[in-house]
Amino acid sequence: MSGFRTLRMSEVSRRFGTTTALDRLDLTIEGGEFVALLGPSGCGKSTALNCLAGLLPLTGGGIWLDDERIDGLPPEKRGFGMVFQNYALFPHLTVRKNVGFGLAIRGVPKPELTRRVDEALALVELADQAAKLPGRLSGGQQQRVAIARAIVIRPRLVLMDEPLSNLDAKLRLQMRTEIRRLHQSLGLTTVYVTHDQEEALALADRIVVLRGGVVEQIGTPEEVYAQPRNTYVAGFMGYRNLLELPVTGREGGRVTLAEPGLRLTGVARDRSAGATAVAAIRPDDFTAGRGAANPLTVTVEVAEFHGRETAVEGVTESGRVVHVRVPERVRPGEKIELSVPPDRVLVFGDGDHPPRPGAAGAG
């Protein structure tokens, strides 16, 4: 595969009429890197991918592959492979012909085409399905055909748009591992669109969190998971408890928030000095039992058995809804004692960071 050193998106924007779907995206991707674009529907992640692919023209900015500007090139001239959410296979062509389609239209000689298709099918473990039509394959097998078709052309960049969203939970896990294995073994550079934070954390070298067409944070999975920039990113990365409370004390990098029946001390994530702040806590960061640090009592309203633990939605004395995970079975109406270490409570003084005015995502 012909590689590259860097791919650079500089102030890339895309508008649809008066709606800004992507607003001045700056992103540099290193050759061999796996980058996930993460966010909810309408955040601009698929728009960014389609701009990269050449399926959407830019309305601002530019895209460079090393020193070559490519945003004016048609899709077929960019040398990228793409895997779609709906697989986009030709139903009337066999698996072999689907995989070899891109090579055929490039005029690759038949002996080389056959060899490369055989290699790609072997990589995705579908050699024994080569003569079948896509309609006779499972969803996971169809997705493997789509991946084989993308990599057989030896692309400089592989673009994946929510490729696992149509699969069941077990297949998603299997295909997630398969995608990472192929990325590593083939030395691919991959840009992957997803709304699933677990997928992004498991697959990516770096994560780009988008909202309303604007980048909220770029970082390694570890950085985005443990050090979210604001409450929007925190909520997306598993901090399900976002509790806005009055500020009652500050000391160094610690902030204390309190209301009747609930007092929390946590780590300040910004320097804002408002009268209220937001405490962000993951459900699994609570410890069952009343400890010295941040003790609280919760009345169970909903309990879901998850095997080794129970997911609980409960309420505090003051009526705050809290989501926790505890090791024992509990039932609605029970009171449970909890605590949470202060370094697991992130405090955002000004709460959310809104997107730029006029930014509203599409895809």
From TrEMBL:
InterPro entries given in the database record: AAA+_ATPase, ABC_transporter-like_ATP-bd, ABC_transporter-like_CS, ABC_transpr_MalK/UgpC-like, Mo/tungstate-bd_C_term_dom, NA-bd_OB-fold, P-loop_NTPase, Transp-assoc_OB_typ2
Domain of life: Bacteria
Signal peptide range in chain numbering: none
Keyword set includes Thylakoid: no
Keyword vocabulary terms for this entry: ATP-binding, Nucleotide-binding, Transport
Identification of the protein by name: ABC transporter ATP-binding protein
Record-linked Gene3D superfamilies: 2.40.50.100, Nucleic acid-binding proteins (2.40.50.140), P-loop containing nucleotide triphosphate hydrolases (3.40.50.300)
PROSITE patterns (alphabetical): ABC_TRANSPORTER_1, ABC_TRANSPORTER_2
SMART domains the record matches: AAA (SM00382)
Native organism taxonomy: Bacteria, Bacillati, Actinomycetota, Actinomycetes, Streptosporangiales
GO MF annotation: an example: ATP binding
Domain ABC transporter: 7-237
